[in-house]
Amino acid sequence: MIAQVSGTVIQLGPTTAVIELGGLGVLALVSPDTAADLRVGQPATLATSLVVREDSLTLYGFASTDERELFELLQTATGVGPKLAQAALAVLRPDELRQAIATENLLTLMKVPGVGRKGAQRLVIELKDKINAVGAAGQAELPATAAKTGGGSAWRDQVSQGLQGLGWSAKDADAACGEVEHLVRDDPGTSVASLMKAALQSLARP
């Protein structure tokens, strides 16, 4: 298992980061929060989880070991794969997710795209007794250094595609882009990752 990668960030997307390791560029799928804290050309360390399938090897990257452990724990629940686990961590912070499961807060869990009431109930039933075993100790938080990507209209396509990749519909993604458009007007240098994070927050609101 690849538990951690350290190297120079050479490329960033709304939910992806490419880290250069010994001349090789390693692609990791990351949350918008994690992407927003990375900067192209700067060193970074990610806690990672390698998901092996018959036809693919996919590396997921996280700002802390706590996020990685929750990502892996979520996948032990029935019907939860890496895509849904990543979406859960994109919408809810580790402490919010842990509390929602521990307190049986179904409404909070249902903010995750793809999780309905039955799915939320299943997460509570299967993970409530395990969730507190995954603690925040030993978190390897990355420094908060947001990258600027420049203005223009390309951000909308990137944010929309990123949201749809996490499970939202094209209609919801377009509406979320409209909610954050003012951020680009206020600061054309706002990073796509920061816009993605803001869009997620707008979707998570009741």
TrEMBL record:
Keyword Metal-binding belongs to the record: no
Residues annotated as transmembrane: none
Subcellular compartments: Cytoplasm
Keyword field: Cytoplasm, DNA damage, DNA recombination, DNA repair, DNA-binding
InterPro entries cross-referenced by the UniProt entry: DNA_helicase_Holl-junc_RuvA_I (IPR013849), Hlx-hairpin-Hlx_DNA-bd_motif (IPR003583), NA-bd_OB-fold (IPR012340), RuvA (IPR000085), RuvA_2-like (IPR010994), RuvA_C (IPR011114), RuvA_C_sf (IPR036267)
Domain Helix-hairpin-helix DNA-binding motif class, first and last residues per copy: 72-91, 107-126
The family this protein is said to belong to: Belongs to the RuvA family.
Domains: entry comment: Has three domains with a flexible linker between the domains II and III and assumes an 'L' shape. Domain III is highly mobile and contacts RuvB.
Protein role: The RuvA-RuvB-RuvC complex processes Holliday junction (HJ) DNA during genetic recombination and DNA repair, while the RuvA-RuvB complex plays an important role in the rescue of blocked DNA replication forks via replication fork reversal (RFR). RuvA specifically binds to HJ cruciform DNA, conferring on it an open structure. The RuvB hexamer acts as an ATP-dependent pump, pulling dsDNA into and through the RuvAB complex. HJ branch migration allows RuvC to scan DNA until it finds its consensus sequence, where it cleaves and resolves the cruciform DNA.
Complex and partners: Homotetramer. Forms an RuvA(8)-RuvB(12)-Holliday junction (HJ) complex. HJ DNA is sandwiched between 2 RuvA tetramers; dsDNA enters through RuvA and exits via RuvB. An RuvB hexamer assembles on each DNA strand where it exits the tetramer. Each RuvB hexamer is contacted by two RuvA subunits (via domain III) on 2 adjacent RuvB subunits; this complex drives branch migration. In the full resolvosome a probable DNA-RuvA(4)-RuvB(12)-RuvC(2) complex forms which resolves the HJ.
Name of the protein in question: Holliday junction branch migration complex subunit RuvA
Gene: ruvA
